[in-house]
UniProtKB/TrEMBL annotation, chain A:
PROSITE patterns: AMIDASES. InterPro entries: Amidase, Amidase_CS, Amidase_dom, AS_sf, GatA. Allows the formation of correctly charged Gln-tRNA(Gln) through the transamidation of misacylated Glu-tRNA(Gln) in organisms which lack glutaminyl-tRNA synthetase. The reaction takes place in the presence of glutamine and ATP through an activated gamma-phospho-Glu-tRNA(Gln). Belongs to the amidase family. GatA subfamily. The gene is gatA. Heterotrimer of A, B and C subunits. GO terms for biological process: translation. This is Glutamyl-tRNA(Gln) amidotransferase subunit A. The active site is at K81, S156, S180. It comes from Knoellia locipacati. One of its GO terms (cellular component) is glutamyl-tRNA(Gln) amidotransferase complex.
Amino acid sequence: MTTDLTRASAAELADLLTSGGTSSVEVTQAMLDRTEAVDGDVHAYLHVDREGALSSARDIDERRSRGEQLHRLAGVPIAVKDVMATKGLPTTCGSKILEGWVPPYDATVVSRLKQAGMPILGKTNMDEFAMGSSTEHSAYGPTRNPWDLDRIPGGSGGGSSAVVASFQAPLAIGTDTGGSIRQPAAVTGTVGTKPTYGGVSRYGLVALASSLDQAGPCTRTVLDAALLHEVMGGHDPMDSTSIDAPVPPVVEAARRADVTGMRIGIVRELTGEGFQAGVQARFDESVQHLVDAGAEVVEVSCPSFTAALAAYYLILPSEASSNLAKFDAMRYGLRVLPEGVDDPSAEQVMAATRDAGFGDEVKRRIILGTYALSSGYYDAYYGSAQKVRRLIADDFAKAFESADVLVSPTAPTTAFRFGDKIDDPMAMYLNDIATIPANLAGVPGMSLPSGLADEDGLPAGFQILAPATADDRLYAVGAALEQRLHAAWGGPLLAQAPDLSTSTTKGA
Amino acid sequence: MSATTTDATLAWDDVLAAFDPVLGLEVHVELGTNTKMFCGCATEFGAEPNTQVCPVCLGLPGALPVVNEVAVESAIRIGLALNCEIAQWCRFARKNYFYPDMPKNFQTSQYDEPIAFEGFLDVELDDGSTFRVEIERAHMEEDTGKSLHVGGSTGRIHGATHSLVDYNRAGIPLIEIVTKPLRGAGERAPEVARAYVATLRDLLKALDVSDVKMEQGSMRCDVNLSLMPKGTTTLGTRTETKNVNSLRSVERAVRYEMCRHGAILKDGGSILQETRHWHEDTGITTSGRVKSDADDYRYFPEPDLVPVAPTRETVESLRATLPEPPAQRRKRLQSDWGFSDLEMRDVLNAGLVDLIGETVEAGATPAGARKWWSGDIARRANAEGSTDVASYAAERSITPAHVVELEGLVTSGRLNDSMARQVWEGVLDGEGSPTAVADARGLELVQDDGALEAAVDEVIAANPDVAQKVRDGKVQAAGALIGQVMKAMKGQADAGKAREIILAKLTS
Ligand SMILES: [Zn+2]
């Protein structure tokens, strides 16, 4: 077993804690020290809760020493994306408009982490209100990719993936509206799962697009993702859209890693053209690994996927324009008084605050969504997008008749350089071409590392999609692939990442 | 064409000569549920500001709504009582607009999929005829907070130095009941409007879904009105008069707007489509917000809630809980009790139906119950400023059993009518039960036939002329003798018995 606690997986840490080989305080302190050493460069955190994390760690150690029966992950620290409400901890969603807001309540996911006894290390960086694929839209500056500090860590949850990839935490919570867990996982060489819509409570997740948002695990191994998925998931009466059924047997599936006789469907529309050669090559190899493990490969076609991006960029802004209306300076967060107005009205204060508090990408989407929902345009835009959404769901249903899971590269490219796409929204949006269909249909998806692209030596991601509520299949396939890849690489992919603590002079 | 908001009015008869009114009524009813529409907060009226709030009804980032099942049941029962169809499947929708007392800057309401639609309510008018009010829809929504504008003279936002917002009301369940445009009411339009709101109020009260207190705002009425020149069928431009919060105001507001529209149209002007405010004190409306095509609430289905889909079994079991419709109940009771139309109307106006029903149930005759509850006690209740006889009686522990007891004392022959009145007075004065009062005041008919006969003999002897008339066959003349006997007996005799003895002595 590894002696560097920061390099251990959550499963390994859990075993060490149970056997008395370490304490939660020791583990937590190791993570905080690592953050101290590397996060100046990576900037994965917006807020680190040193005292809070250590105090929960002490509490867990004490309870363990009293012989109390604890949760399997008790004492394993975790980072939480800044889009989740955390009682007593700042929650900004990467936006100036929520600067200084400290929620008076915990998101259900956060309550579950606390109930499991997992110390919360801090809140991770993200594109403002989860709008973006690079964290360049964070109002507090971007997160840097641990593989190359000049490159983006993906988005919107770049902070959560980078915090795991840079060994500052074994686990993090992400949220995925169109790929915000899976695409950062792909470009940072980590694992991320977007569970079935309704599989994890959205209560306390500050909504971007209510019908698409889903929180999930960001980890370094498939088993760790399953362990965290199990803690987060399950029915919540506070979320009407939450599924009233037990969490699928994800941990068992990850441990068995069995794909014998499984039909793996390659989606014709999500491969080949438009995908970077090195990304495609690693994908093809991964498929071969699954065949070697006993799976069968079939090709499926999902023709409506080509319209997914267009539908997504109507539904998301529409819902977002309404969800973000509450940020009006009346009750919490930023309040800006309009300049040169003596006795401003409430509306003038709202307008001035929203102008100062929202970034360009947020404004762009609010305007798009407001337009799409306007009377006279509703049917042509929002209405048509909903129809496309049904067609995509139909395509999935048909594909899952001939395949047990579908696979594709997670993102078309490896991590791009800062600034490459910031002024070209369309190029930025295309990053999510392979991840968006799952959100539109509500089906679960996972990304895990498939290797390094030959042309740039950067991580590529392998995406697995399963039918709704069959999240366990992601873990069976993911774990089987991970085993074979680790064997081929002689260890985890992240072992090949540059050592940040010795190269801290490099910066973007 | 010039739009105008002049306050000139046309004489009532001239309006009727030239125009037909088209009336539409929108009634908002606060449901009497214990908790709010989408969260568990209490709904008690008059609590300290902002004490009945939580993350959900304050619209805090991340909070999610959950539908109050009791409110849905109430909505279905209201729909059924209004003879509506109940939707098999319907959704909530977001109505987007900015206002400081709207915590989310959208109101969760229903748009094109109301829970109940296509119904009617038959309304009885003063002349005994029935007017059928067609119901377009009844839908569920949440109330907004309440703004208090401070510092101005009017209490309106204009001129105020600051505003206070109380979110206790935010999220209280509302049902909005909308009529179809009502044509053909003619001169009775004001009466129809009042009678509809009164009938609706009685119905909702009988359903026990709301306390329907117009003065506290738990039932609020908006009056839509337009005029059509006689002989035409195209609807004119309508105005929406808000804040019409008493039955009398509903009637007056319709009449006023008819006269105001009439004056404008008669002069060749056109009606401005706008919201108008009703002023109870002056009996006029004033111009409010101008409605235009720019009003766009950008409705779309609420993604945070699942559709409401009541099974037909649920609907039928709720139908079985409907009380007898108040109008039908009144007719049945009137015939059961043998009251004339006039008597029944008096009883209704005095709010005595339930009290008389209980008293009859307890064993009194309907006539007796009506007599005792509508006489002295009604005058006292009125003089002492009590809202109704029932609560006045309840506060003083005067019960239906007292009336039954009083009637028993008369039928058993212990009291005559005038003695019974004295006893009732004692009961109302708080001297105890009828028997106790009769005992204490020594009220009892003389049962000694000897004393009565002696008195009769004395009276006949003292009035020989009258006695002779009776002997000659003029039986009605005996009345004078009876009066003398009762006087001699100081009222404590049975007048019937006195009559018997007199006739026996003079005619046999
Ligand atoms: Zn509440």
